[in-house]
Structures are given as structure tokens and as C-alpha cells.
Amino acid sequence: MATSPGSSSGSSSGVSSSASPPGALGAGAALDIRTRSVEQTLVPLVSQITTLINHKDKPKRSDKTLQAIQRVGQAVNLAVGRFVTVGEAIANENRELKEEMNIACIEAKRAGETIAHLTDVANLDHPESDGRITIFTDKTQVVKAARLLLSSVTKVLVLADRIVIKQIITSRNKVLATMEQLEKVSSFQEFVQIFSQFGNEMVEFAHLTGDRQNDLKDEKKKARMAASRAVLEKCTMMLLTASKTCLRHPDCESARVNKEGVFHRMRLALEQVIEIVTDSRPNGENNMAPLSIYTGIKEFKNKVEGLRENLYFPSKENLSTMLELILEHTEDFTDSAYTSHEHRERILELSKQSKMELEHLVSVWMQAQNQRMKDIAEDLEVAILKTCQCINELKRELHSAATSMAAELLKYHADHMVLKTLKITGVEGNLEAVAEYTCKLSEQKEQLVEMCHLLRHVSGTEPLEITCIHAEDTFRVTGPQIISAAETLALHPSSKIAKENLDVFCEAWESQLSDMSILLREINDVFEGRRGEKRVYLSLPRPGKHNANLKALKPVKLDTEEQAKIAKLGVELHLLTSDIDSETEKWEDQENEIVRYGQSMSSMAYSMYLFTRGEGLLKTTQDLFNQAEIFATEATKLVSTLHAFSNQLEDDDKPLLLLKIDKLIPVCQQLQITAKTTVQGKNATFIKVDACIQKTKVVMTILSQILPLCYKLLRKQKAGNGYLRSPPPWRENRIQTKINGESLEGKTEAFGVISLEHHVANLTFLESK
């Protein structure tokens, strides 16, 4: 393929500029495809062309075969024609790349027409008689056209991706330029004017980077992007209040420090977004996080288990070094003041045992290299199994130590007592009390930073590891910012702006604590093998108004006022999901169909709760209605399962369960009808949203009563009291979670477009404050 010319962003496009369609067509798989939109454009095209190239050359060709080949050739040509139309529209909107884009489009169109001609039935019937070149007489011509087509289509995609990257960089530069102006303003009137512009620029940046984040294939990059954008969301409001405080109290040192901290953090986040988008790392690899224990254990086990296939692959020094590195990281746990004595002793014991098992494995391994006896092979297999079993036990113990400590700390700090006291003493102007409680906040910060550090070691996936690093950084940075905001308020206790500023930083702290509870659940889900499904979201190409492929109705979102109205209902739904999660965790058999349906419904209800906050995977009201319909269907399936279960009960035990089932059935039907009903207009849509969430709440309330009842009946049966007549035949249908809304990645993907627009709208109140 022709590479895109000298732009630094060229190599970071959805297709790497170094990736070219190779000599053989099948090597299209070697393309370095980095975004989902590029992949979904190229892969079907490669598949269709490969079908043409790989057809079997038979002496006799039926009409059916000829027509099938023609259909594929025409489909390729039509698809290329539509693609070229989009490419030309993009070219017309971006003059600097117009010439390159048009050349690539012309090449693609010509190649598509060539393939259509070579596969035309009129030419295929008797090609030998008139000397015409067809797919049967000269396959190399089709291969040549296919290479040209893939090369030109890939070039169009690279150029389109460069435009997207350029848009993000340009948007970032606008934000930075306006931030510099905001830092220098000296009057409220000037600040209001510039911040209004800044807010609009941040909203644009949010939309561009949100599309890019969701389009990335690399989950690690996606998580880093989500973390950076979450920082920008929170810091936008912080920048507003910190700047206002500085303007009101220009001689206050703590206010200046507070404001500078926000600007510095925003610049770092903006820089990281550009690093991800352009796939560059100006500071080298040094800013990569050190190896986590879960990664080290995974690599170590792979090497150990690899001995079965290749006795000579790793060296014994290599294995010993890998284990030493893992055990060195376990010192983070054993040295921690927050690790319990029992966990510490068990970790040390398992570390010692791991060394012994590896020494024994190395000994058997060395013998196996010299003697190929059956007994030695069996001894080696036993040694491999024992080493892996020991390292798995160590992993389980570390996970238990980190998650139990995190659960205790989050529960202990859930009342936010230190923050509440700081606010009260600040308003009182009590500098001595503020100093005392800032020390307590610093201690709390150190605890939470260490908690995040230990959770990172057991996070289980790279995206969750990045989320732990982001949380650790948030606590480390936000703690001192709360302290400087509290000191400012204590020095100016009657200042409404200083009080508002402290409130904003405290809310960010509380929000991060809340996020930690979700993160903890996700880490446990990964450890136990439970992970939710994710929705695919594509963003490229984006030729604006000329894009014929993206003509859809504008999705409806709740505005700020509607979100506020429905927030209380969302919180109530959230509490119910927590209750149901607690109930399902009690069941010994997590594969029980009642439990599985309960978990699935709780997950979907949680995604609806996130929607009420403007977060999560449900972005529009239509997403919510679709989710409500699926939820109602799942609840209906649960009713069938419960009826089957009730048939196994003695008559004395049936009535109460049947009563609950009878309550559930009409609500499920009402919810399905409500979700399917078409409405028009803003007010009608909001009423439908409210009704869907209300009915979901009612279903969840009934479910929270059904689960403990079923659990009680099953426990009686296990105790041997004969409450079940025969083994239950209610395991035919396996369920799958439709949407897991409790993902932190999903939450951060929502990056505050809504909240940013809310900040901008609130500017009208600035001068009055």
C-alpha cells in the first residue's frame, strides 16, 4: 500500500502506515489494524476477495457457480463504490488531503470495476473462445486488482484516520490556548467570557475523544484514555471553582496552590490523551508502570507449563529470576501495615513453599533433559502441577489480602467524617482544627493509595490495572488539593466561593471512593471468572453531513434538569441491586438458574441506574428502552423457572412463593408494553423513561423478596427435610448477561459531556456569587 506522507500522526492511524497488503492476498491479516471501524471496513472486503481468489478451478462450471462468482464480484464493486463516495466527501471537507484522498479513491474505484468485469457472467460462459481474460483464464489479473483495491482502500482509511487524529490534536490545542488565557485573567467578567469558550471547547474535545476511545481495539489504550478523560471531567469543575476562589482572594497562597494544581493535572491528562491517539511516548518507556504480580504469575506459569512441550526452551536461571521478581513484589503485602497477621504469615509460608517447589522442578527437569524414561516424564508432570498449584495458592492469598483490606477500608471511610469535619471547621475559621483534620485526611490518603497499589497487583486484567493506577493517582493528588481548599476556607470563612470550592474537591474524593467499590467488584468478578459483555461502538470514517452510511435519527439524551429529577429513583434502584447482589452471593451453587437470572437482572438494573447519572453503557433513551425490554424478558424467563421450582415443593410451601410470582407477572408485562410503546416529544419521552425505571424498581423489589425465600427452601431441602419431591428439571436454558453496566470502563467512557454542558450552563450564576 502507498503509505501516507510525512505526518507524525500517520503511523498512529487505524491502520499502521508500515502495514501494506503483501504479495499474497491472504496476508491481509498481517495489517496492523488498531481501530474497530477500520477493521469492520477492511475485514469483510478481504473475506470477499479471498473467496474469489480461492475458488476451485473445475473443468465443468455450473450456472449456479458462475452466478455466485458474479454476485461476489458485483458486491465488491458496489461496496467499493459506496466507500469511495464517503472518501470523496471526506476529501472535499479536508483540502490539505484532498489530492491524496482523490487519487486513492480513483484507484479503489478502478480496481472494483476491474474485479466486476473479470467476474461478469457474460465473460465467464465461454471465455476461451474469444480470448477474453476472466477469473478462470488468468487468476493473476484478479490478484493484481485485489492488491490494488486493498492498497487504495487502506490508504483512504489511513488518510481518514489522520483527519480524526488531527481534529483531536487541534481541539486539544484550542483547549490549551484557552487555559493559558484563563490562568492570566484578573477580573470576573473576563473570566466568565473565557470560561464559556473553554467549556464549549471541552465539550467538543469530549465528543472527539469519546468516539476515539470507543473505537480503539486495544483494551489497555482504551482504559488509559478513559482514565485521562475522567480526570478532565472532574478537573473542569475544579478549574472553575479554584479560579473563582483565586479571583476573589488574589493574595491567598493556598488558593493559588490549589488552582495551579488543577491546571497542572489537566495539562498532564491532555498530554496523555494525545500520546494515546498518536501512539507516541515522548518520555520513553520509563513512565510505564512496574510489573504487577498477576502479570508475573501468568508469565511464570506459562513458562513452567511450556516445559511439557519443550524441555530446552527456558533456562533454570530464567525461571528462578521470574519467581524472585514475583516474591519481591509480595513484599508490598508483607510490609504493609494494613495486611492482617494471618495473611502475612500465609503469604510468607507460600513464598517459601514456591521456592522449594521450583527447586524440585528444576532438579527433575535437569534429569529429564538427560534421561528420556517414562518415570522421569511422570515425575516432571507432577513437579509442574505442584509448582503451578503452589503459585495459584499464593495468587489466591494475595487476592484475599488485597480485597479484604480494600473492603474494610472502604467501609470504614464510607461516612466521609473527616471531609464533613473539615467543611464545618473551615466555615468556623478554626485554623487549629483544620490543621488537625488535614493530618487525618493525609493519613486516609496514604491508606487509600496503598490500597490501590495492592489491588493493582491482583487486578487480573491490564484495563483494571490501569484503573487502579488512575485511582491511586487521584487519591494522591486530590488529598493535598482538599487540604489547600480547606486552608483557604479557614482563612476566609465567610467566602461562599471558597466553600463551594472545598465542596467540589470533597465531591471528587467521595466519587472516587464510590468508584473503588465498583472496581473492587470488577476485580472479584475477574478472579472468579465472571465478566460482562461489552457493546461495540464505531466512529470512523466520519465525513460529517456527507456521510450517506450514517444517516440515523439523532439519539435523545436526558438533559441536566431531567437527570436531576430522576436521580433519586436511580439511587433507589442502585440500593436494590446491592441487596440482590448480597442475596445471590449467599448461594453455594452459583450456577443455579434462579441465581443466574437474579445476577443478570441486577446487572441490567445497575446499567439503568448508571444511565440516570449520565454514565455507563446506556447512552440514549432508546438504549434504556431496549435494556428495559430485555430486562422484562429476562424476568419473564425467571417466572417460568420459579414455576418449575415451585412444582417440586410440598403443598405447604407453595403458597408464599406463588404469591410472589403472581405479583411479578403483571409488572413484567407492563414493563414490556411500556418499553415497546412509541412516544414523541421531549416530555412524553421523559415520562416513558420514568415509567420504565419505576417498573424496573418494582420488579427488583419483588426479586429481593423471592431470592431469600427460594434460598431458605433450598437449604431446608439440603438439610434432608424432604421439601423437594425430586431433582428439579429447570436447567434447560442457560442465560447470558445482556449488558453489564457496572463496568468502570463503561462508566468512564461516559466522560462528562453532560456535566461539562451543565458547567457551561451554570456560568450565568458566576457574577452573582
Automatic annotation (TrEMBL):
GO CC list: cytoplasm
Q: Which UniProt keywords apply?
A: Cytoplasm
What is its subcellular localisation?
A: Cytoplasm
Q: Which GO terms describe its molecular function?
A: actin filament binding; cadherin binding
Show the Gene3D superfamilies listed in the entry: Alpha-catenin/vinculin-like (1.20.120.230)
User: Biological process GO annotation list?
Assistant: cell adhesion; Rho protein signal transduction
Q: Where is this region: Disordered?
A: 1-24
InterPro entries on file: Alpha-catenin/vinculin-like_sf (IPR036723), Alpha_catenin (IPR001033), CTNNAL1 (IPR030045), Vinculin/catenin (IPR006077)
> What family name appears in the similarity comment?
Belongs to the vinculin/alpha-catenin family.
> What is the protein named?
Alpha-catulin
Annotated source species: Alligator mississippiensis (American alligator)
